Every structure is written in structure tokens, then in C-alpha cells.
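Running this now, will post back.
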Amino acid sequence: MESIALTDINGIRHVYEPDDILWFFEETRPGLVRIINTERQLATFALDSRQTAVLKKELKASGSPIWFGAFQGERLPLNKLPNTRGLGGLSAGSSAVIGHHELIRSGALHDATPHDVEYLTGTMGLKTIIDLRTDLEIAAKPDPAIPGVQWVHVPLLDTWEYEEIGLRTLTESGLEEMRNQGPEMMVRLYRKIVGAPEGIRGLKKFFQILLAKRSGSVLWHCTQGKDRTGVAAAILERILGCDAQVVEQDYLQTNPCLHMQEDQTEAWLTKKLHLSQKTARDFSFLFEARPEFLQAAWDIIDTEFGGFAAYLENQLGLDQEKQAQLKRMYTC
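Update: finished.
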């Protein structure tokens, strides 16, 4: 294949050999293509759909080891892990993206099939698992032991703070309270994740692990991959330079991933607790990421801790140099 000459959106001409290209992907906005070369330099080009299709076909035919397509929060192709997603390709400002095969967010891993484990350790290069769940959750459904992968327990809630919601499903009065106050309960949960001592300790350790990583990718998870995992991901994405829209879009991507689990839970509530299908749907908040839940975390950071920058430095121990180090490690 001949050299590729393209002019980027800033008017700068680039000449690539196929072997020079590390990553080729189409932006979420139609007509934009990003290329990252082997020196981790990013350029954005305005190409129409025909030009993009032709160029992609030629690059694939070249046989060069090019990474096509940014996950951008999309679900990984796994069998039994519905909400396991790579952060690679998410826009981290005007001239950077989160690197591929570096950061993975997920729900619990106890259902992982051999194929799932092979994909995570092989294709995604998984080396570290950070389990954000409580002791009780882990005892009930422990992660599989994966050779060559380090497992670290970093709880973001104590057992009672988490089970306060789950225990309400055991009584009729508790269910009624959840039905009427469920979203408010979730708002309180998010406030605790970022504001309670257990949450702050856990988030601080979470970032210490990310800063200490030397090889492979890091996966963090709770039970559904929605609340604790979502908050940790959102804070990290803000540090890496993602704007508010990108952060929220990635957070809300949980919803289509968990749609099947929500259907299964409605069926369980209907059958076991003899609720009507309409009443069962009132509990959808348990399986939904909602903007107001995440906003509750941002609000408590602003009102109780002096804003995001102060929270990072004073509560999580992330000064400007450590934030810059995270950017160097996880964006390109």
C-alpha cells in the first residue's frame, strides 16, 4: 500500500505509512476521523463517509497491526458480563483521547465464562482487578481467581450503607418505602460514595493503584457496574480531561447494557413478591443510571468539599503533578 497523505482540520498535512498508524477511528460526530500514530500523536481529519470507508478498507488490507474503532464506552464482546466496557477512545479534551486497552469498567465478574476471561486477559491485557464491593457482596459472589491478574479489594461503601437498600426488599413495608423514596435513597447513596469516610478512603486507594500501575490494563467493578463503578469512572474521566457531556454519556451507557437485567428483576419482583408488572416497574431505579444520581455526587463535592479541584487534592491526595501523571499514563 502506498503512503497516505491527509490534511487535518487545522490545515496541517500528514503523510503516513500503514505501519505508522496505531489507531484509526471514526468520531461520534459524522465526517470526522482520528488517527493516532505509533508515536502517540493524534490528528483529526474531515472525511466524508465514502473516503472513510475506502481508507479503512485499504488499511485493513495492508495487514498492519492497526487498532480500528474506539470503544468509547461501548460494551466489550463478552458472553456473561453485560456491563463491561472499555474507556478507550473517549475524548479527553480537544487534542487527546483515553488510550485503548488501559481502563475497563465493569459489573461483577462471578459469571465470567472462559471466553470472557480469555478476552479480558488476552485482547485487553488485564493485569489488575479493583473490587469496589462490600465484604458481604464478595462472600456471596466472589470474583474468579485469574492467574497473572492481581485482585485488590477497595470498598467504597461499608456493608450497612449498601445493604440498607437491599434489606428493604425483605419486607412489605420496606418495599413500599423503596417504591416511594427509591430515587431519593439512590441520591443519598451517591453522596456517601464521594462524601463518607469509607468512600473517600476507597477512592484515594483507587487512584493510588492507577498511579502505581506498570503494565497491562486495570478493571474496576462493583455489582452492576453502575453506581460505585460509575462514580469512580466519572471522577477519573474528569481528571483525564473529558468534558461534562462525555462523562455523562459514558455514565448513562450503563442503561442499555443493563436492560436485560432490569427485565429479569421485574419478572422476579412480579413472581416472588406478587407485585403487578406496573408496580415492579416502579423499582427501575435499581437498574438505571440517572443524571440526577451522578449530579448528587458533584453537588456534595461542591458544597461540602470546596469544589472538584479541592476535593481531588485535599481528600484524594491528587495534587497537580499526580493528575498530570494520570493524563500521561492514560491518554494519548
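The longest strand covers residues 21-26. More later if anyone needs it.
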